[in-house]
Specification:
155 residues, mainly beta, six-stranded antiparallel β-barrel, 2 helices
Length: 155
């Protein structure tokens, strides 16, 4: 009888106090900053196909992103502007400009995080290129070399 009570208590604790195993907490309200230039990933507006840029970091909605877990270290990066748009790479070709597209469109809007602390390389699962900055303001799918593709996630 005591073993049965212990099993019931364990089941109740697991059901009501622990989060479901398949569910992870999303990261909400995150700036994606390229540290050397102190610029953040930004979207000019909420329209599908809008090209993603990196602009001087300021506290405004078009630079704030929500990370939604797809799998371990794999996320969708959703605009915080309430548009239903995610960062996407429409081609695995290096130099392809990253844009925003409706979330859930396949591997083009799924990203893998590699790094530690708050510094990561963010690679697209649609070919493996990384979120990278150019000499201009464009954010592209490019080299995963740290000099081009290390981003800090600021909360």
């Amino acid at each position: 009888m005591p073993r049965r009570i212990a099993l019931i208590i364990t089941a109740l604790v697991a059901a009501f106090l622990l989060p479901p195993a398949a569910e992870a907490s999303p990261w909400i309200g995150v700036w994606i900053e390229y540290r050397p230039s102190e610029t953040c990933v930004a979207t000019p507006d909420g329209s599908p196909g809008a090209l993603i840029t990196h602009d001087p970091c300021v506290d405004i909605g078009n630079q704030i992103w929500n990370f939604e877990d797809v799998a371990k270290f794999t996320v969708r990066i959703r605009s915080s502007m309430g548009t239903g748009m995610c960062l996407a790479a429409t081609s695995p070709t290096a130099g392809t400009q990253v844009l925003q597209a409706p979330c859930g469109g396949g591997s083009s809007d799924v990203w893998t995080l590699t790094g530690s602390g708050n510094t990561f390389r963010i690679s697209n699962t649609n070919g493996g290129g990384c979120l990278a900055r150019t000499g201009g303001s464009a954010v592209v799918l490019g080299s995963c070399m740290p000099a081009f593709a290390e981003w800090q996630l600021l909360f």
